[in-house]
Amino acid sequence: MLHCKYYTISTMFCFHKNLLLQRIVRQYSSSKKDAKPIRNYLKQNSKFLDSLRIHVKAGTGGFGFPRYGGEGGKGGDVCFVATEGMTLKDFLKKYPLKKLRAEMGGNSHSRRILGQIGEDKKVNVPTGITVYDDKNVLIGELNEPDSELIVGKGGVGGNKTNGYCGLKGESKSIKLELKLIADIGLVGFPNAGKSTLLKAISNAKPKIASYPFTTIRPNIGVMTYDDLRQISMADLPGLIEGAHCNIGMGHRFLRHVERTKLLLLVVDINGFQLNPKHQFRSCLDTVVLLNKELELYKEELLDKPAMLIINKMDTEGANEKYLEIKNQLEHLDDTIMSYSDEIKPSKAIKFDKILKISAKDQPDDVQRVKSTVRELLDINEELNNNIEYKSLKNIKEQLRERGPVLI
């Protein structure tokens, strides 16, 4: 009788436990149905790939043949070939294991004194790739289509100097970093209107909204002119104060402006505040802070040709705000001296042009940006060509044969 009682209590406990579990599962399922789906653009943008680590193993050299002094064949190299229109995602699809291996060199034998050279492993990678070894030492860059870079050298074949034993090829982990190649790099704080400008000025279709960080991956747009000339523009996720400490999205995407010919800084005339917990920064403050963040990432960026866009001039009181800071923007060297050391950059960026626009509502302003950008690119290209010509002329002058000098 006692046994039956305990059995009944145990059965009831299991029944209530199962009932409770079913209720939790139903609640979870209904809450999952009612929950908002993840935004598609976040899913897509999270797949953007601009860095990849892989392992390469070059071929080992073949054995030599001591009796006849035969030499083994050299091991094959692992070689990258820059390919236009390719992405790192394409690379990953072809090599999902992220391992590359070249062939071994052939052995020397009585019928073949010189061993056959191992076949090189030639791999297509995107143009704009920078390759580092596992100690973060630069191996090389591939900036031009069809250019090649050996990332793993094959071992020497067996011969008299190494006891006829072939040497192993290089085996190491390497990192591939993709730097987008564009004529212009858009840099600014979140919600400054970079994506709006890119959409209005080119064929790009970036995500645009009234909240910060709508751009979470670089976008490339192409401006086309009446004479069919094309100029490419890269829009990067917004920087924020402290990006050098990896706050926000950090400096991860700034590598994409290293190869641009012109920096285009876009700021909101009304200033910027990430949220109520953060300090409000005026338009002038954001310019100084962008200057500081660029300097902390790579000081050489400050020497690039640059242009400043003051956006959202269609808002109330925008003209008055601009007139207050106009002189300070034009003399940024003196302006930065009034800032505290934690904000103040050691060197002010030089703006070739400062334009105030409304990217959203004024098509004429957008056209003015297009023509100014083209003009600045042409002027700087001409200056660079003149510098190269003068330096080449000086070298030729130094190498020119001279007759005897009368002393």
UniProtKB/TrEMBL annotation:
<dbReference type="InterPro" id="IPR031167">
    <property type="entry name" value="G_OBG"/>
</dbReference>
<dbReference type="Pfam" id="PF01018">
    <property type="entry name" value="GTP1_OBG"/>
</dbReference>
<dbReference type="GO" id="GO:0005525">
    <property type="term" value="F:GTP binding"/>
</dbReference>
<protein>
    <recommendedName>
        <fullName>GTP-binding protein 10 homolog</fullName>
    </recommendedName>
</protein>
<dbReference type="GO" id="GO:0005730">
    <property type="term" value="C:nucleolus"/>
</dbReference>
<dbReference type="InterPro" id="IPR045086">
    <property type="entry name" value="OBG_GTPase"/>
</dbReference>
<dbReference type="GO" id="GO:0042254">
    <property type="term" value="P:ribosome biogenesis"/>
</dbReference>
<dbReference type="GO" id="GO:0003924">
    <property type="term" value="F:GTPase activity"/>
</dbReference>
<dbReference type="Pfam" id="PF01926">
    <property type="entry name" value="MMR_HSR1"/>
</dbReference>
<feature type="domain" description="OBG-type G">
    <location>
        <begin position="182"/>
        <end position="377"/>
    </location>
</feature>
<dbReference type="InterPro" id="IPR006073">
    <property type="entry name" value="GTP-bd"/>
</dbReference>
<keyword id="KW-0690">Ribosome biogenesis</keyword>
<keyword id="KW-0342">GTP-binding</keyword>
<comment type="similarity">
    <text>Belongs to the TRAFAC class OBG-HflX-like GTPase superfamily. OBG GTPase family.</text>
</comment>
<dbReference type="GO" id="GO:0000287">
    <property type="term" value="F:magnesium ion binding"/>
</dbReference>
<dbReference type="InterPro" id="IPR006169">
    <property type="entry name" value="GTP1_OBG_dom"/>
</dbReference>
<dbReference type="InterPro" id="IPR036726">
    <property type="entry name" value="GTP1_OBG_dom_sf"/>
</dbReference>
<dbReference type="InterPro" id="IPR014100">
    <property type="entry name" value="GTP-bd_Obg/CgtA"/>
</dbReference>
<dbReference type="GO" id="GO:0005739">
    <property type="term" value="C:mitochondrion"/>
</dbReference>
<keyword id="KW-0539">Nucleus</keyword>
<feature type="domain" description="Obg">
    <location>
        <begin position="46"/>
        <end position="181"/>
    </location>
</feature>
<dbReference type="InterPro" id="IPR027417">
    <property type="entry name" value="P-loop_NTPase"/>
</dbReference>
<keyword id="KW-0547">Nucleotide-binding</keyword>
